[in-house]
């Protein structure tokens, strides 16, 4: 089965996975052959729902919750973090048929929310800031080959982050 991928997405795959051109074709072929055959409906949020419910405890943290003057956490910041997660989950599923790995959702610095994926071969941290006008920041490490760092608009699906979550 051939997988048709727009040139822009191939450029993102090349950049974030640092694959040479001959390996991108191998990657896409393997991805096409790993199609998930679904019978009935699939809950792409399985596992994520439980993490979100548990993470709601963050909203109970009041100002100075850590004894160091840190602010509490707003529902707006939490909701933006969840919106980012659901958008990435839907984008991964719709584009690749892959479920979003479940991150740890935790309190970040200065009222921000951290989304932390930690796997045996890689980790990714996305920080959703308390200020809705600021960009989210991210850091990824696949333990030896590549480290990435940057910022993104958490209101939009980010193919680079999605690509990182597929490795």
Q: What key phrases describe this protein's structure?
A:
167 residues; alpha+beta; 2 domains; five-stranded antiparallel beta sheet; 5 helices; 5 strands; globular
What Rg do the Cα atoms give? Answer: 17 Å
Proportion of residues in extended strands: 15-25%
The order of strands across the largest sheet is 1-2-3-4-5
How many domains? The number is 2
Molecular structure report:
The protein has 5 helices and 5 strands, in the order ααααβββββα. The radius of gyration is 17 Å and the shape is globular. It is an alpha+beta fold and 167 residues long. It folds into 2 domains: 1-35, no CATH class; 42-165, no CATH class. The protein is 37% helix and 17% strand. The protein has a 5-stranded antiparallel β-sheet with strand order 1-2-3-4-5. A hairpin with a 5-residue loop joins strand 1 and strand 2 (113-118).
Ordered list of secondary-structure elements with their pairings:
Layout: H1 7-17, H2 21-33, H3 48-55, H4 75-96, E1 104-107, E2 113-118, E3 123-128, E4 136-141, E5 147-152, H5 159-165
Antiparallel strand pairs: 1-2, 2-3, 3-4, 4-5
Helix pairs in contact: 1-5
Summarize the structure.
This protein has 167 residues and is α+β, with helices and mostly antiparallel strands.
